[in-house]
Amino acid sequence: MPILFQPRIANAKPASQIMIDTYMAALGFEKGTDVGRFKNKEYETWDILPRNVLVDADGDIYVVDAEIKRL
Questions:
Q1: DSSP 34
Q2: Separation CA 46–CA 32 (nearest Å)
């Protein structure tokens, strides 16, 4: 679910593309033709790249500044 405001994520670092791909697959998204582009039956999202995805010390993943559209 998109979040419009999120508090600062302490001690986070960029996630690797492998971590991102695994996370998105777990959410039911399939990889698109471009790196960082994913879709499912309802949504397409892109710009899901390490510069826009953080992982905290607990391994929780936060996607920030991604593009999304309803199909």
A1: S
A2: 9
- Locate 54 and state its tokens: 């953080």
d(CA 62, CA 52): 8
Distance of alpha carbon 9 from alpha carbon 1, whole angstroms: 18
Report d(CA 14, CA 71) in Å as an integer: 28
8 A C-beta contact, residue 58 and residue 45: no
Residues 43, 44, 49, 51, CA torsion sign: negative
Q: What does the mean pLDDT of the chain come to?
A: 91
- Joined tokens for residue 56: 């905290």
pTM: 0.85
66, with CB counted inside 10 A (0-12, 13-18, 19+), is middle
